[in-house]
Specification:
Blueprint (H helix, E strand, L loop, with lengths): L1 E8 L9 H4 L12 E8 L6 H6 L6 E9 L5 E4 L1 E3 L26 E3 L4 H10 L4 E4 L6 H12 L7 E7 L7 H20 L2
Parallel strand pairs: 1-2, 1-3, 3-8, 4-7
Antiparallel strand pairs: 4-8, 5-6
Helix pairs in contact: 3-5
């Protein structure tokens, strides 16, 4: 029993939508009795995206799946969150990240706690193209992923990770929603089975 915290991002230039949130709004994964889904929309903003997600880490959260959009035809299960961001990339407020590292005292990288091999197999079995990715990029996705894992560093019992979904021009929002449901269900199963 527990809470599954899921997040997606709002749109960012030049995109008018963001399926990482648009598909998540109506996602209805089949969950074991006693489990509930808590959704949160993140702004593509350096000063508040990660904070908004971390603030929702209630004591009963057992799983966190953060979703973002990448211009890729495949779903990407991100393996590593890297302690660096691209200082040239502006957010929706026109602001750039102002430091070389995300957490001065943090490790170079954190590894996902999602069952990535099981996710890849389940997605492939449901006719989705999915890959393991070793770099979540230099923008808000990696930044939020790293901050999340840093916040959970002393909570090894909380499974967490990041998944990139394709833009709606590459994968219909309805299909993205089904993929998200599949990911959440598979991740919960890995916890319940422990």
């Amino acid at each position: 029993m527990g809470t599954i915290l899921v997040s997606g991002f709002g749109p960012f230039p030049p995109h008018d939508d963001n399926p990482s949130w648009d598909a998540l709004v109506d996602a209805a994964p089949r969950l074991p009795k006693g489990w509930r889904l808590d959704r949160v929309r993140l702004d593509v903003a350096w000063d508040r995206a990660a904070e908004t997600l971390i603030e929702r880490l209630a004591p009963d959260v057992r799983l966190v799946v953060a979703f973002g959009q990448a211009d890729d035809p495949a779903l990407r299960i991100e393996r590593f969150a890297v302690n660096a961001s691209n200082r040239a990339l502006l957010d929706v407020d026109g602001a750039a990240y102002d430091r070389d590292v995300i957490e001065v005292s943090g490790p170079s990288a954190y590894q996902t706690r999602l069952p990535r091999q099981a996710l890849l197999a389940r997605l492939a079995g449901n006719d989705f193209t999915a890959v393991e990715s070793h770099f979540a990029g230099g923008y808000l996705c990696n930044y939020t992923f790293y901050r999340l894992m840093h916040a959970l560093a002393d909570k090894p019992d909380v499974a967490a990770g990041f998944v990139h979904v394709p833009p709606s021009s590459r994968l219909a929002v309805a299909r993205t929603r089904t993929a998200m449901e599949t990911i959440i269900e598979c991740a919960v199963e890995s916890i319940v089975g422990d």
